[in-house]
Design brief:
The protein has helices spanning 2-8, 20-37, 44-47, 57-67, 91-98, 109-121, 126-133, 139-147, 170-176, 187-192, 198-202, 220-226; strands at 73-78, 81-86, 124-125, 151-156, 164-168. The protein is mostly helical. The protein has 2 domains: 12-90, Arc Repressor Mutant, subunit A (Orthogonal Bundle), CATH 1.10.10.10; 109-226, Winged helix-like DNA-binding domain superfamily/Winged helix DNA-binding domain (Arc Repressor Mutant, subunit A, Orthogonal Bundle), CATH 1.10.10.10. Strands 3-5-4 form a 3-stranded antiparallel sheet. The protein has a two-stranded antiparallel sheet with strand order 1-2. β1 (73-78) and β2 form a beta hairpin. Mean pLDDT is 78; it is low at 212-226.
């Protein structure tokens, strides 16, 4: 009985009885509704469940984006999927309406330093980060990045004691607007050009859009001290 009811309520993804134009519009509506209702980026595999086998999802997404031109929100590709996102021009209005304009959580300089290093050199253990910066990277700092969902424990390091190494998360990609880690500026090109390295990171030169809160002191020694919470 239950099996029969499940068959009767199965979604008709093909919509073969509809004219092509109406079928396309229905697929557009389904895809946009699924993305709108989701709390995280929706992957291609999920969207494929609500459209026909011959549906070109890339063209469908392009048509949805065209219809959203001029609207205060857009359809963006992040973390291997799609999500609705309000346009940056309306950020101040949204924060003011919600009463959170003064409560925005920005990464500290120490957090930005460590997060940038993890993003480019992952998987990397806390001890390796400490060696990289020449200062102890505190457990509290790592815990803070984990609490924000930007990093997670990855494979165990081959170092003595087999500590966990750290990697960035899907939330990291979503927060910084990256579709995948391939969107990070090429590390070898940055290093060859002298744009990435320990000295650059310690000087606060954050690659790929990493933002640090303004702490009023941009000296390299201040940035290095920030990693372990000491004063320069």
């Amino acid at each position: 009985m239950a099996r029969r009811a499940k068959r009767e309520t199965a979604l008709d993804a093909e919509l073969a009885d509809l004219p092509p134009e109406l079928r396309w519009r229905e697929w557009m509506g389904r895809v946009e509704a699924v993305i709108f209702a989701a709390s995280e980026p929706v992957t291609r595999e999920v969207l494929a469940r609500v459209v026909g086998r011959d549906c070109n999802l890339d063209l469908l997404i392009a048509d949805i984006r065209d219809e959203l031109r001029g609207r205060p929100y857009e359809l963006v590709t992040v973390a291997g999927g799609w999500r609705h996102q309000t346009r940056k021009a309306f950020a101040d209005a949204i924060q003011a309406a919600a009463g959170v304009a003064d409560q925005a959580r920005s990464l500290s300089q120490a957090e930005s330093l460590v997060l940038a290093a993890i993003a480019y050199y992952q998987p990397i253990a806390r001890g390796e980060l400490s060696e990289f910066f020449g200062k102890e990277v505190s457990r509290d700092l790592i815990g803070g990045l984990r609490a924000m969902g930007l990093i997670a424990a990855g494979p165990r390091s081959p170092r003595p004691g087999a500590p966990y190494a750290f990697v960035t998360t899907q939330n990291f990609l979503a927060q910084f607007g990256f579709e995948s880690l391939r969107d990070l500026p090429d590390i070898e090109m940055l290093e060859d050009a002298g744009l990435l390295g320990k000295d650059k990171l310690l000087a606060g030169a954050f690659p790929g859009g990493f933002a640090a809160a303004d702490d009023g002191d941009d000296r390299p020694e201040a940035a290095e001290a920030a990693v372990d919470g000491t004063d320069a």
